[in-house]
Amino acid sequence: MPTLVLVRHGQSQWNLENRFTGWVDVDLSAQGEAEADRAGALLAETGLQFDRVFTSVLTRAIRTANIALARAGQLWIPMVKDWRLNERHYGGLTGLNKAETAERHGEEQVKVWRRSYDVPPPPLAPGGEYDFARDRRYAGAPIPDTESLKTTLDRVLPYWASDIAPALAKGETLLIAAHGNSLRAIVKHLFGVPDSEIVGVEIPTGNPLLIELDAALKPVAARYLDADRAQPLPAI
């Protein structure tokens, strides 16, 4: 039976500062490191033996994977990094303080930008501090200037189909260490969550979500390893 574990990176420094992060390469906070270590301890308790880990090209996700796997005694397993597992691109909100943005634009508008399925924030102007066009991680990639959850899903799903699903179909046990919205995109796909309901799905930081799949890669069981920090899961 294929087994998949999803883990959102631990708290980042910009999570702590309440800023829109997106593709900015922010490191973990001290709390985030502790959350990643706790995730590794929980993984060790399951006895799962991973075949490989998939992650984004952002430090906070990579370090979460490394810290967790080190704690679980499996740091040696192959790691695959790909920008398509990045957090959603927050466009013109990138770097802004969330509370100050709500004061400027109104809480309802910011809620729409943050939580709606298909309404993206305003686009990021080219040439600024957070323009990723010259970042060699994205050489040849179609860099967005903003993303909704829907367009995040549009880039995650082809990667799921081409790289992750075939590994699961072979019976591999996989860990994906990524971000709130790229993981929500995977959860939406796996559980068939309607567009109107995915806005209510939250992925807690540093809490591994263990999903057992059938031969068709449909979930047959799912649970957060830290029950005290669990969020409601979509129905199977």
From TrEMBL:
GO terms for molecular function: phosphoglycerate mutase activity. GO terms for biological process: gluconeogenesis; glycolytic process. The keyword Isomerase applies. The active site is at 9 (tele-phosphohistidine intermediate), 87 (proton donor/acceptor). It is an enzyme of class 5 (isomerase). Coiled coil: none annotated. Substrate binds at residues 8-15, 21-22, 60, 87-90, 98, 114-115, 180-181. The record marks 179 as: Transition state stabilizer. The keyword Isomerase applies. Pfam families: His_Phos_1 (PF00300). Keywords: Gluconeogenesis, Glycolysis, Isomerase. PANTHER family: PHOSPHOGLYCERATE MUTASE. HAMAP family: PGAM_GpmA. NCBIfam families: pgm_1 (TIGR01258), PRK14115.1 (NF010713). This is 2,3-bisphosphoglycerate-dependent phosphoglycerate mutase. The gene is gpmA.
